[in-house]
Amino acid sequence: MKASLVVEAIGHDLAQMHRLYRGKIDSAIPGLGALALGRESEFVRWGIWEILADRRKLIYGRTDYSRANSKGSRGVRICYLLESGKRYFVKAPVSWKRTDEYFCYVSEAGEIVRE
Fold first, then answer.
1. Tens of pLDDT along 66-97?
2. Taking Cα atoms as reference points, which of 8, 14, 4 lies closest to residue 78?
């Protein structure tokens, strides 16, 4: 069974601007963008990772801008499709200052169960 989990990508505009400017700097001198602006993981506060035996694998979702504000800083939602029988690590921002982090799995009935 599969289940969907929707996460609001608070600060989505900052992550996109970071990606744009890092790419511009890297086009002049490769590798300088990450040194000057920092890594992308410092700006992205949301995501879902599948827990494997030796590592975490990032899961990509579908981005929905239909309820977003004009800047894209709030209301951007990302929908993830999760399969049963696998463990996941979830980072979901609740506000600008607080991010909810937890492990979960999908039961055979298709419900998401937090650990």
1. 999 988 889 899 999 999 989 999 999 888 88
2. 8
If you ran DSSP here, which 8-state letter would residue 2 be given?
A: E
User: Which segments of 1-115 does DSSP mark as H helices, in order?
Assistant: 12-28, 32-37
Domains of the chain: 2-11+43-114 (2.60.40)
> Integer distance in angstroms from the first to the last C-alpha of the chain?
19
Highest mean pLDDT among 31-35, 55-59, 70-74: 55-59
Strand order through the sheet with 77-83: 2-8, 77-83, 62-64
State residue 43's pLDDT score. Answer: 62
Is-contact 91 101, C-beta < 8 A? Answer: yes
